Amino acid sequence: INFRRNALQLSVAALFSSAFMANAADIPQVKVTVTDKQCEPMIITVNAGKTQFIIQNHSQKALEWEILKGVMVVEERENIA
């Protein structure tokens, strides 16, 4: 009985982890590079829903990243090194 329970637990864990990985792979990614003079791209428009932002900071200081809807900040991250 213990063997069956352990096998069932492993099967369920594998099922959930593969489902999570499939969903994570479906999330669109946007790459952003920041230098001391500018951000590339300067303007980003994304569809509603989840988006993963990959930020590379090539400037000399930590920075703050804000996602705006018009003039309202809807999400932010601080001290990105």
SSE inventory with pairings:
Layout lengths: L1 H24 L3 E6 L4 E2 L11 E6 L5 E7 L2 E9 L1
Parallel strand pairs: 1-3
Antiparallel strand pairs: 1-2, 4-5
Describe it:
The protein has 81 residues and is of the alpha+beta class. The chain has one domain. It is 30% helix and 37% strand. The strands form 2 sheets. It has a 3-stranded mixed sheet with strand order 2-1-3, with no helix packed on it. Strand 4 and strand 5 form a beta hairpin. The radius of gyration is 20 Å and the shape is globular. 0% of the residues are buried. The N terminus is likely disordered.
Provide a short characterization of the protein structure:
By secondary structure, the chain is of the alpha+beta class. It has one helix spanning 2-25; strands spanning 29-34, 39-40, 52-57, 63-69, 72-80.
